[in-house]
Amino acid sequence: MLIMFLAFAIFLALGMPAAFSMGISGLIGIFTLDGVASVVIPQKIFMALNSFPLLAVPLFVLTGEIMNTGGITRRIVSFCNSMLRHWRGSLSHANIVTSMLMAGFSGSATADAVSVGAIMIPAMVEDGYSPEYSAGVTAASSCIGPIIPPSIIMVLYGGITGLSIGKLFMGGIVPGVLIGLSQMLITVYFGKKLGWPKYPRSTWAEKWTATKSAVWALFAPVIIIGSMLNGICTATEAATIAVMYCLFVSIVIYRDMSLKDIPKILLRAALNTAVPCLIISFASLFGFVITRENFASILVGFLFRISTDPNVVMLLVIVLLMIVGLFVDGTVALITFAPILFPLGETMGFSPIHFALIILMVIMIGTITPPVGLQLYVAASIAKVPVTKVVIWPFVIAMLAVVFLCAYVPAIVTFVPGLLMP
Where would you find the membrane-spanning parts of this chain (predicted)? Predict the structure, then answer.
């Protein structure tokens, strides 16, 4: 197993894509095991994707593509701008609130960073915000998408651990809102420090026009989340509803999209789905070796030698994942550590939903921290600034504050799932 971890680290350091680094190192790990037939390799790769819950991943990716092409994203941005224009730093606030509303559609941080960033970053720069700050707030707000339901990473976590995806979704509502509010506090701070101007309040006519234009888009999260809460459908079926609803609104109501656009949308969605699916399938080899070598028990034993206090163990897990997030892609970190940390949470007596949300929130923070943060690179490329100059650390600190609050006040996470899905 040590050889496998070393190979994985070397491959990543050499610049090999994460999926292939994990797959090849997993193969090396399997070949070092005794009594394991080579037929296990294709079986594990196939079975990793042969999962009904994981079908939600391409469907939510497709939802995001339809939203961008069909004008849904643009209308949500316009709605937020009209409601918040009189606030100091209004476009920054609108950026964050847009991401909170977008979270009810696709659940993908990358899709959020691309779609919102393409609209908001140029607008913010034109309005006088620095490109470095515009990229930072966009990257940070994109992390809200996978925390507020629906969420692709929650689907992955539920598929790996067997936890209820519906309860994971509900557990993310309050933490996701708190993350958004914490980022808005950072905007308030920068607004006062830098003296950003206030603009006249939108007229009621302007607000009504923006609301009327966006109402179909704003109604979508109610349908998606409400259908799961009422037990009408599973997360995968809700993803199907999201696709069909967004298609209907984009083609019939808004008419910003036609049937001719569908092949291009399907192609982009397929390409964007291929990467996480490749990582999931190859990570199954990695996970097989970890399970076979009983690495979870080794990790638990190591942490217990440091402390048996659940509060200390929780802190160690957060620190571990923060360090991992600096160097490893979020999806890879999730696939690698979820099978390891899940038994640890059970051993320590943590609520599975509570522990899962802490893991997922810290992993999402890792997607905006250099040198590997994907959303950081996406936002920086749109703003055309070096990654090292993006204003990201104030938002990281604010998000970490929410993580620690949720970690040591579990009711913040468990209240909604306990109330709505006992």
Answer: 45-66, 94-121, 133-156, 168-190, 210-229, 236-254, 266-291, 312-341, 353-378, 390-416
| Domain ranges (residues) in the chain | 25-420
* DSSP state at residue 150: S
pLDDT exceeds 90 at position 179:
yes
Q: How far apart are CA 152 and CA 150, in angstroms?
A: 7
Name the nearest CA neighbour of 395 among 360, 356, 367: 367
DSSP 99: H
3-class DSSP state of 157: helix
Structure tokens, 351: 């609520």
Measured between alpha carbons, how far is residue 82 from residues 28, 77, 93, 380 in Å? 56, 9, 11, 26
Residue 199 is given by DSSP the state: -
pLDDT of residue 187: 93
Tokens of 103: 């979270």
Q: What is the pTM of this model?
A: 0.82
Coil, strand, or helix at residue 130?
coil
Is the Cβ–Cβ distance between 152 and 168 less than 8 Å?
Answer: no
Where b means 16+ CB within 10 Å and e means fewer, 164-198 reads bbbbbbbbbbbbbbbbbebbbebbeebbeeeebee
